[in-house]
From TrEMBL:
Family membership noted in the UniProt record: Belongs to the protein-tyrosine phosphatase family. Non-receptor class dual specificity subfamily.
Protein keywords: Hydrolase, Protein phosphatase
An example Gene Ontology biological process: negative regulation of MAPK cascade
A single Gene Ontology CC term: cytoplasm
Residues of the Tyrosine-protein phosphatase domain: 12-154
Entry EC no(s): 3.1.3.48
Residue ranges occupied by any Tyrosine specific protein phosphatases domain in the UniProt entry: 71-135
Name listed for the protein in its UniProt record: protein-tyrosine-phosphatase
Pfam families: DSPc (PF00782)
Organism: Aldrovandia affinis
Length: 185
Protein backbone atom coordinates (compact mmCIF):
# COMPACT_ATOMS: atom_id res chain seq x y z
CA UNK A 1 0.00 0.00 0.00
CA UNK A 2 1.36 3.42 -0.95
CA UNK A 3 0.43 6.51 0.99
CA UNK A 4 0.71 9.95 -0.52
CA UNK A 5 1.54 12.74 1.87
CA UNK A 6 0.12 15.96 0.57
CA UNK A 7 2.76 18.57 -0.12
CA UNK A 8 2.12 22.09 1.14
CA UNK A 9 2.12 23.32 -2.47
CA UNK A 10 -0.64 20.79 -3.37
CA UNK A 11 -2.93 21.77 -0.52
CA UNK A 12 -5.86 24.04 -1.26
CA UNK A 13 -5.80 27.27 0.74
CA UNK A 14 -8.72 28.02 2.97
CA UNK A 15 -11.84 29.08 1.11
CA UNK A 16 -14.27 31.94 1.69
CA UNK A 17 -17.75 30.41 1.48
CA UNK A 18 -19.88 33.43 2.37
CA UNK A 19 -18.79 36.70 3.96
CA UNK A 20 -17.20 35.93 7.35
CA UNK A 21 -17.29 32.13 6.89
CA UNK A 22 -14.16 30.26 5.83
CA UNK A 23 -13.62 26.55 5.23
CA UNK A 24 -10.21 24.97 5.60
CA UNK A 25 -7.87 22.39 7.05
CA UNK A 26 -6.04 21.95 10.34
CA UNK A 27 -2.90 23.44 8.79
CA UNK A 28 -4.77 26.73 8.27
CA UNK A 29 -5.11 27.26 12.01
CA UNK A 30 -2.07 29.46 12.46
CA UNK A 31 -1.96 32.90 13.98
CA UNK A 32 -0.62 34.40 10.73
CA UNK A 33 -3.23 32.75 8.51
CA UNK A 34 -6.16 33.69 10.76
CA UNK A 35 -5.07 37.26 11.48
CA UNK A 36 -4.32 38.00 7.82
CA UNK A 37 -7.97 37.22 7.02
CA UNK A 38 -9.50 38.73 10.14
CA UNK A 39 -10.63 35.34 11.48
CA UNK A 40 -11.22 35.39 15.24
CA UNK A 41 -13.28 32.21 15.81
CA UNK A 42 -12.44 28.60 14.98
CA UNK A 43 -14.76 25.61 14.81
CA UNK A 44 -12.79 22.34 14.70
CA UNK A 45 -14.61 19.23 13.48
CA UNK A 46 -12.08 16.73 14.81
CA UNK A 47 -11.27 14.69 17.88
CA UNK A 48 -7.55 15.29 17.71
CA UNK A 49 -6.71 18.70 16.20
CA UNK A 50 -5.21 20.72 19.04
CA UNK A 51 -6.83 23.92 20.23
CA UNK A 52 -4.66 26.88 19.23
CA UNK A 53 -3.02 28.42 22.29
CA UNK A 54 -3.49 31.93 20.87
CA UNK A 55 -7.32 31.66 20.82
CA UNK A 56 -9.44 32.15 23.95
CA UNK A 57 -11.67 29.18 24.80
CA UNK A 58 -14.76 31.31 24.11
CA UNK A 59 -13.64 31.69 20.48
CA UNK A 60 -13.07 27.99 19.86
CA UNK A 61 -15.49 25.09 19.52
CA UNK A 62 -14.59 21.44 18.99
CA UNK A 63 -17.02 18.96 17.44
CA UNK A 64 -15.33 15.68 18.46
CA UNK A 65 -16.12 13.35 15.56
CA UNK A 66 -14.02 11.21 13.25
CA UNK A 67 -14.46 10.89 9.52
CA UNK A 68 -16.07 7.47 9.80
CA UNK A 69 -19.35 5.72 9.19
CA UNK A 70 -19.91 5.30 12.93
CA UNK A 71 -19.76 8.98 13.87
CA UNK A 72 -22.75 11.26 13.43
CA UNK A 73 -22.63 14.97 12.70
CA UNK A 74 -26.35 15.65 13.12
CA UNK A 75 -26.42 15.90 16.95
CA UNK A 76 -23.75 18.61 16.79
CA UNK A 77 -25.35 20.80 14.11
CA UNK A 78 -27.44 23.08 16.39
CA UNK A 79 -24.47 23.92 18.64
CA UNK A 80 -22.21 24.51 15.63
CA UNK A 81 -24.71 26.76 13.83
CA UNK A 82 -25.25 28.79 16.99
CA UNK A 83 -21.48 29.16 17.46
CA UNK A 84 -21.04 30.43 13.90
CA UNK A 85 -24.03 32.78 14.12
CA UNK A 86 -22.89 34.07 17.50
CA UNK A 87 -19.49 35.05 16.12
CA UNK A 88 -20.93 36.56 12.96
CA UNK A 89 -23.55 38.53 14.89
CA UNK A 90 -20.66 40.27 16.65
CA UNK A 91 -18.96 41.01 13.32
CA UNK A 92 -16.31 38.30 13.53
CA UNK A 93 -15.20 35.78 10.92
CA UNK A 94 -15.15 32.03 11.54
CA UNK A 95 -12.96 29.24 10.19
CA UNK A 96 -14.61 25.80 10.10
CA UNK A 97 -11.96 23.10 9.68
CA UNK A 98 -11.20 19.43 10.04
CA UNK A 99 -7.93 17.62 9.36
CA UNK A 100 -7.92 18.17 5.58
CA UNK A 101 -10.96 20.38 4.91
CA UNK A 102 -12.45 17.71 2.66
CA UNK A 103 -15.16 15.79 4.55
CA UNK A 104 -16.28 16.73 8.08
CA UNK A 105 -15.93 20.51 7.98
CA UNK A 106 -17.49 20.77 4.49
CA UNK A 107 -20.46 18.69 5.67
CA UNK A 108 -20.99 21.10 8.56
CA UNK A 109 -20.50 24.08 6.26
CA UNK A 110 -23.16 22.69 3.92
CA UNK A 111 -25.53 22.51 6.91
CA UNK A 112 -24.77 26.15 7.74
CA UNK A 113 -25.37 27.23 4.13
CA UNK A 114 -28.72 25.38 4.20
CA UNK A 115 -29.63 27.23 7.39
CA UNK A 116 -28.34 30.69 6.51
CA UNK A 117 -29.18 30.85 2.79
CA UNK A 118 -32.32 28.72 2.88
CA UNK A 119 -31.05 26.22 0.31
CA UNK A 120 -31.89 22.53 0.16
CA UNK A 121 -29.13 19.96 0.65
CA UNK A 122 -28.25 19.53 -3.02
CA UNK A 123 -28.09 23.27 -3.73
CA UNK A 124 -26.12 23.97 -0.55
CA UNK A 125 -23.65 21.23 -1.46
CA UNK A 126 -23.17 22.70 -4.95
CA UNK A 127 -22.80 26.19 -3.46
CA UNK A 128 -19.96 25.05 -1.16
CA UNK A 129 -18.37 22.85 -3.86
CA UNK A 130 -18.17 25.85 -6.22
CA UNK A 131 -16.14 27.71 -3.60
CA UNK A 132 -14.02 24.74 -2.50
CA UNK A 133 -13.86 22.15 -5.30
CA UNK A 134 -11.84 19.64 -3.26
CA UNK A 135 -14.69 18.81 -0.86
CA UNK A 136 -15.90 15.22 -0.67
CA UNK A 137 -18.00 14.74 2.47
CA UNK A 138 -18.51 11.29 3.94
CA UNK A 139 -21.84 10.02 2.58
CA UNK A 140 -22.87 9.15 6.13
CA UNK A 141 -22.92 12.85 7.04
CA UNK A 142 -24.87 13.86 3.93
CA UNK A 143 -27.37 10.99 4.19
CA UNK A 144 -28.10 11.85 7.80
CA UNK A 145 -28.71 15.44 6.90
CA UNK A 146 -30.94 14.49 3.97
CA UNK A 147 -33.24 12.68 6.40
CA UNK A 148 -33.16 15.05 9.35
CA UNK A 149 -31.48 18.35 8.58
CA UNK A 150 -34.52 19.97 7.05
CA UNK A 151 -36.20 19.71 10.45
CA UNK A 152 -33.13 20.90 12.37
CA UNK A 153 -32.38 23.77 10.02
CA UNK A 154 -36.05 24.85 9.83
CA UNK A 155 -36.31 24.77 13.63
CA UNK A 156 -33.19 26.92 14.03
CA UNK A 157 -34.23 29.30 11.26
CA UNK A 158 -37.53 29.94 13.06
CA UNK A 159 -35.61 31.86 15.73
CA UNK A 160 -32.55 33.36 14.00
CA UNK A 161 -30.15 35.35 16.16
CA UNK A 162 -30.51 39.10 16.17
CA UNK A 163 -27.55 40.83 14.63
CA UNK A 164 -26.72 43.63 17.03
CA UNK A 165 -26.22 47.00 15.41
CA UNK A 166 -26.18 45.54 11.91
CA UNK A 167 -28.20 47.26 9.25
CA UNK A 168 -26.38 46.22 6.11
CA UNK A 169 -27.03 43.23 3.92
CA UNK A 170 -25.02 41.31 1.38
CA UNK A 171 -26.64 40.05 -1.77
CA UNK A 172 -25.23 36.75 -2.98
CA UNK A 173 -26.07 35.76 -6.52
CA UNK A 174 -25.94 32.04 -7.16
CA UNK A 175 -25.97 31.79 -10.97
CA UNK A 176 -25.86 27.99 -11.08
CA UNK A 177 -29.05 27.91 -9.01
CA UNK A 178 -30.63 30.98 -10.60
CA UNK A 179 -31.14 32.40 -7.13
CA UNK A 180 -30.28 35.57 -5.24
CA UNK A 181 -29.93 35.41 -1.46
CA UNK A 182 -29.81 38.40 0.89
CA UNK A 183 -28.09 37.88 4.22
CA UNK A 184 -27.61 40.40 7.02
CA UNK A 185 -24.02 41.15 7.99
Amino acid sequence: MVFHRERESDRQPLSLIIPHLYLGAETDVTQDCLSSRGISYVLSVSRCCPQPVFLPKSQYLRIPIDDSLRDELLPWIPEALQFIDGAMSLGYSVLVHCAAGISRSPALTVAYVMYRLGLDLDDAYRFVKERRPSISPNFNFLDLRKEHAKFVVTKLRAAPPKLKGRETEIVIAIPSLRKVVIIPV
